[in-house]
Automatic annotation (TrEMBL):
Residues 1-24 are annotated as: Disordered. Residues 1-14 have a biased composition (Basic and acidic residues). This is Membrane-spanning 4-domains subfamily A member 4D-like. It comes from the Eukaryota. It comes from Myripristis murdjan (pinecone soldierfish). The keyword Transmembrane helix applies. Keywords: Membrane, Transmembrane, Transmembrane helix. The keyword Transmembrane helix applies. Residues 15-24 have a biased composition (Polar residues). The chain crosses the membrane at residues 44-63, 75-95, 107-135, 147-171.
Length: 195
């Protein structure tokens, strides 16, 4: 049986399932939720979800290491969980947009951005510490290889965290614009007085 329910994206583009729209422009772009849908939160949510899975998987491997790294205060675990939650919320809100879900997404984006700022500082400290260990253990090949591998994982996680921060800043800006009321315009009427 053919699915007759149209998605939110099709409704915003004017496609009701029976006919193809003539243009690919977004209709009713002044409506708040359509501003958020135009940012394609579903696709960006999938990307954030994948980064969250990568963060968690690398965190499990880094936790086994004896050298100090960012897993000392469980950064890959709580940051990976934040990315997973943000990604899932973005996907759900992209499929079922509502003002309440956009508000929840915006709150989680802000919490995740604050967590990213904290984790970037911790990762910078960890990278500096591992560079110091590389310089200190230059003659020992096994310790040098272990520190080099851990350093490269930290650098990859640092870069991926930075990329997710850019995505979350974009999504939070779109969510903020979606929550902004369109009825805040001032109407000025000029009334002429009869003399």
């Amino acid at each position: 049986m053919e699915d007759t329910e149209s998605t939110a994206r099709e409704r915003t583009r004017g496609n009701d399932g029976n006919q193809e729209p003539e243009t690919n422009t977004v209709l009713m772009s002044s409506k708040p939720l359509h501003r958020f849908i135009s940012g394609d939160p579903k696709s960006l949510g999938i990307v954030v979800l994948i980064f969250g899975c990568a963060e968690l998987l690398m965190g499990f491997q880094m936790a086994k290491d004896k050298l100090e790294n960012s897993t000392k205060i469980y950064v890959p675990f709580w940051q990976g969980a934040l990315f997973l939650i943000c990604g899932n919320l973005s996907i759900y809100t992209g499929v079922h947009p509502s003002k309440r879900m956009v508000t929840v997404c915006l709150a989680m984006y802000v919490v995740s951005i604050l967590g990213i700022l904290l984790s970037l500082g911790i990762r910078i400290w960890s990278i500096c510490y591992l560079l110091h260990l590389l310089w200190r253990y230059w003659s020992r090949t096994w310790a040098q290889r272990e520190a080099t591998q851990l350093l490269m994982v930290e650098v990859v996680l640092f870069i991926s965290t930075f990329c997710v921060s850019v995505l979350l800043i974009f999504l939070s800006a779109k969510a903020r614009l979606a929550l902004k009321s369109t009825h805040t315009q001032v109407v000025v009427q000029h009334v002429q007085q009869a003399e």
